[in-house]
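User: What would this chain look like folded?
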Amino acid sequence: MVTSSHTSISWLHRARQQLSKEQFMQGHVLVIAGKPNGGKSLVASLAFQPLLGQVAKAGLYLAKGNDFNADLVGSELLLLDDEKLSMRMEDRRGFGLKLKSVCAGSGNVSRHGKGADAYNVNPLWRIVILD
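Assistant: Here's the prediction, encoded as structure tokens.
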């Protein structure tokens, strides 16, 4: 049986490997779930952020149907911390598709800012969901 700490270490190793090689590598979303005030956000701020780099709150882009992602492009870690996700099936499908696109194919992402033309970039993203 794989414990959650082994999973987190493997995920972090893959994320660091991607950054050191400076090339996109497919990877999983890391979900850390637990009781309120259990230290989930603390782990993200004291362990993941120093080891991975800039953090962006990705809830609007990944979970709320917002197509603007210019604020995320300069970050390595996309964080969803206690996001209130919709229970509607179509919203859940959209969320799942965006997660899949980042994990499996974020080697080529359309960067889209408000009032600006979109262009393609190759971000080195990893996603952490704290719940």
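The mean pLDDT is 84. If you want, I can go into more detail on any region.
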